[in-house]
Amino acid sequence: MKKHIFFDLDHTIWDFDRNAEETLNELYHTHKLKELGLLSCSDFILKYTENNHQLWADYHLGKITKEFLRAERFSKTFIQLGIHPDSVPQQFEDDYVSISPTKTNLFEAAEEVLAYLKQKYSLHIISNGFKETTLTKMNLSNLNPYFENVIISEDVGVNKPNPQIFEYALDKAKATKAESIMIGDSLEADIYGALNFGMEAIFFNPLEKEKPVDVAKQITHLKELMLLF
Length: 229
Known about the structure:
6-stranded parallel sheet, alpha/beta, 6 strands
């Protein structure tokens, strides 16, 4: 019987792409990117999203550092869109990191689902997100009351999918593998990380990407969890 549910935060509960889009629309105007030569804010957001997802995938696997990710994601985007490196706005990344975590868009029905699950299970977060921004997101989105523990990779010293972070999370929750299940959007970090550790997992797949045959369970909407638990 399951007693503990471990959630990823970004792209699973906190709607990263929607919050990023709001932030980037604001910064497009604040930094006057149109005058810089970027005539389409939507093209800028699409290219940034593509680069950011790839960099985060590399970060999950320990291929790059936090510092490299932060330095690269916008500079690479600007340069790919034809902006000379000397013209890349130096304050852009810092402004993004300051504003984006203050956004509070969650996936549809997130609070309803969490309130329902909290009545029956102990809920926990395991996040590869940066510590300061993760804590800000949790606080401003009023998510803290739902979760007993917030495990952040920077505190543990390793990222998902490293088994050590799952071991740390279970120790913190006083849980066993058999009592626990992981829910997240990243196949590599959340799903295979948990499965290879020996813990069940549910793939959160709102974009309805093709599900690998070796992943048994998936949902496309958080509300499906109310039928599963």
